[in-house]
Amino acid sequence: MTPWKTLATVATADGALELRQRGERELLIVIAGRVLMTSNDRRSEEALATLACRALAVRSPRLLIGGLGMAYTVRAALDALPVAARIVVAELTPAVLEWCRGPLAPLTGAAVLDPRVDVVIDDVARVIAGAPHGHYDAIVLDLYEGPHAATQRADDPFYGPAALARCHAALAPSGVLAVWSEEPDDAFARRFAAAGFDVATHRLGKTRTHIVYLGRRLDRRLDRRLDRRPDRRPDRRPDRRNGPRRG
Q1: Residue 16 within a domain
Q2: Which range of residues forms the domain containing residue 162?
Q3: What are the angstrom distances between the C-alpha of 175 and each of 72, 98, 136, 138, 183?
Q4: Which residues face 140 on adjacent strands?
Q5: Residue 38 near residue 208, CB atoms below 8 Å
Q6: Is position 22 within any domain?
Q7: What is the mean pLDDT of the chain?
Q8: Contact of 47 with 204, CB cutoff 8 Å
Q9: What distance in Å separates the CA atoms of residue 61 and residue 219, rounded to the nearest whole number?
Q10: Residue 185 lies in a domain
Q11: What pLDDT does 148 receive?
Q12: Quick one: which of 143, 204, 229, 240 has the most CB atoms within 10 Å?
């Protein structure tokens, strides 16, 4: 069998992030020696974006995707959304964007270069926290591992109660929060629902089962109280299109 060739390596807080290639079209992203994603298996990334986009009822949706990866999530969202849609992708590692503009571009038809896409180098948790109230129609979190046992702490920046409350506030009425998970996490599903979302669970695949949690934002009296506060009036500043790992 043809051996893997390392095309690029970059240091991250989670370990060495590597882009590898075998043959002409088979590519792999590895972090700290663990396979993060491969060009030969993109079904769960595509399902994540497709499920989120199908749940939208607005004509000009604004979508935030956390995690760029190989840009399969972005490509699937572009294919499912109208031409008036706008997608902000928050990616933590600048090299990943360069890979998606370079050796990974043929896999997705250079999705990151589509005029509907704006990629920002930032932590998606920060982007969500800085978003005006009700700014996004959908938030898609396609992050490394997704919710699991180690993310149960209350202050987890992506899956804790406060993080979910910030997602709820950043979404428009009936907006959608879609979360990719490597495995089922019942505790997360309960937190998700308790944060004011109507949650559905989608199991993907028959062998290694990945999960998509799809939550529709429910109205809460808290939101109505916040809307009446002077500091939570609609923000008229320009968009803050400002996030981590898969994609």
Answers
A1: no
A2: 42-232
A3: 22, 31, 7, 5, 24
A4: 65, 178
A5: no
A6: no
A7: 88
A8: yes
A9: 19
A10: yes
A11: 83
A12: 143
Q: Does the residue 54 lie in any domain?
A: yes
Phi and psi for 170 in degrees, rounded to 5?
A: -80, -10
Q: What is this structure's pTM?
A: 0.86
| Range ranked top by mean pLDDT from 7-16, 133-142, 153-162 | 133-142
Domain count, the chain: 1
Q: Tokens 């993907």 appear where?
A: 204
3-state SS, the chain, equals CCCCEEEEEEEECCEEEEEEEECCCEEEEEECCEEEEECCECHHHHHHHHHHHHCCCCCCCEEEEECCCCCHHHHHHHHHCCCCCEEEEEECCHHHHHHHHCCCHHHHCCHHHCCCEEEEECCHHHHHHHCCCCCEEEEEECCCCCCCHHHCCCCCCCCCHHHHHHHHHHEEEEEEEEEEECCCCHHHHHHHHHCCEEEEEEEECCCCCEEEEEEEECCCHHHHHHHHCHHHCCCCCCCCCCCCCCC
Tokens linked to 71: 């840009």
Q: Domain containing 151 — which CATH number?
A: 3.40.50.150
**Tokens standing for residue 149:** 């046992």
